[in-house]
Amino acid sequence: MFDNVDWVELSGSLLLFILVFCMSATVDIKSMKKQLDNRRAICTGIVLQFALLPFLGFLVVNLLQLDHAMGITLLVVTSSPGGSYSNWWCSLFNADMALSVTMTAISTLLSIVALPVNLLLYANHSYDDDVIASLDWVALFSALVIVISAISLGLFTSAKFDSPGFNKLSNKIGNLAGLGLILFSASISSADEDNQLWDHPWTFYVSVATPCVLGVVLANILASFANLSKPERVTVAVECCYQNVGIATSVALTMFKGDELSEAMGVPLFYGICEAVVLGIYCLIAWKLNWTKAPSTDPLCRVITDNYQEFGTDISQLDEAGAEMTFEKESLQKMETATEIDEGEGFT
């Protein structure tokens, strides 16, 4: 009965479902509904996720002439927004958390159409027709079905329970599932002794890391032009480069075999390492520049453990207000001094 079951593929799909379900179940539905009116930030994030990063992936694939196993998987990675751990980074360093959760949900739903469209568009301009014909669209849509069903069920469960305790429990289970998926990907990628993760040519590491690094830089520039608040800029930058590598992992498991599988599995695994390192450094810098809701003067241990989301006004706005108050106070003091001088001259 179970002779024809691919347990490796099934295990990867199960871990992906648990991760996305649990992270979706941590969402506060009321906060998510409020953020739907924040059209400028959401539209900026959508453009960054579905236009900028896939295009960066396309440029890298063509400039470095990547083979089809690595190139197709990288295109899937850069076309798969909705990484649930982006919420964790925004929560940890106190960016706009409600916006992060809303963008994750919206981008994952839009991926149903945008992911295959981007993949078909850029793969068609990067590889021959025989490579395009060999694409396993069933595997791609199967991964999307898993993600969409997990998000839908997670949001429904969160609304049904409406309990902070349930949200925290879901977050913990999701973290374990995420760790399990990382270890699972690492074991598959390292299964071939001749194709270990750290034995690839330099083009592998440059090609996988480049979209992530450029994505953060360009996202900040474009978000600044869009006149988003500083915590919103941090959020859209994190959402832009943090991809759902679980989708690429699931697709690679079903599309490739042998050496190609080991090579393809290394792409989402190394991208996951890159985004963790890049975002960790970026969030620290953003916090020190007062771009988040946590004051840069607070100790780091307090910043990553306390919740600053309820303050409503980000620290940069408080700094601007403080500067205005200081200016007004200095102006008042000058006026009082001038009045005293005039009065003194009047008595002489």
TrEMBL record:
Main location: membrane
GO CC term, one of those recorded: membrane
UniProt membrane topology term: Multi-pass membrane protein
Record has Membrane as a keyword: yes
Keywords: Membrane, Transmembrane, Transmembrane helix
Segments traversing the membrane: 12-29, 41-64, 97-117, 137-161, 173-190, 202-222, 268-287
Highest taxon above the source species: Eukaryota
Subcellular location: Membrane
A Pfam family annotated for this UniProt entry: SBF
InterPro entries documented for this protein: BilAc:Na_symport/Acr3, Bilac:Na_transpt, Na+/solute_symporter_sf
Homology family: Belongs to the bile acid:sodium symporter (BASS) (TC 2.A.28) family.
Protein's name in the database: Uncharacterized protein
